[in-house]
Amino acid sequence: MKKIFIIDWSLIPVFVLSAYSGIELHVADYEGNHEVWHNWAVFHVLTSLLFLMASIFHIATHWGWYKGTAKNGIGRIAETYRQHLFGIEGVKFLPG
Predict the structure, then answer these.
(1) What tens digit of pLDDT does each residue of 32-50 get?
(2) Within 1-96, where are the H helices?
(3) Residue 20: its pLDDT value, please?
(4) 51 neighbors 15 (Cβ within 8 angstroms)
(5) 73: alpha, beta or left, given left = phi > 0 and alpha = psi -120 to 50?
(6) How far apart are CA 25 and CA 65, in angstroms?
(7) Residue 62 gets which letter from DSSP?
(8) With helix as H, strand as E and coil as C, how does 32-43 read?
(9) Burial class of residue 48 (count of CB atoms within 10 Å of its CB; 0-12, 13-18, 19+)
(10) pLDDT (tens digit, 9 = 90+) per residue, 46-85?
């Protein structure tokens, strides 16, 4: 499997773990048990750092796409993508 797809798909479970641990962190705070809160805080920091690293790798692997979008504009990129997806040449779905 390509590295880019592994990086892209890894964002989903890491984000879910980070969001879930953040919610559990707030719940543990309301319950008042500091040891449980501390455990959730450590887990939340670790999963958030994993999400940050995966996001940095994601941006790095798609950097060429970001540069092309900034240079050519979103409309042109979207039109090229539609042509590639549907095999349609010269048909525009959006004005511009």
Answers:
(1) 889 999 999 999 999 999 9
(2) 3-31, 34-61, 63-72, 74-86
(3) 97
(4) yes
(5) left
(6) 36
(7) T
(8) CCHHHHHHHHHH
(9) middle
(10) 999 999 999 999 999 988 878 877 777 666 666 666 666 6
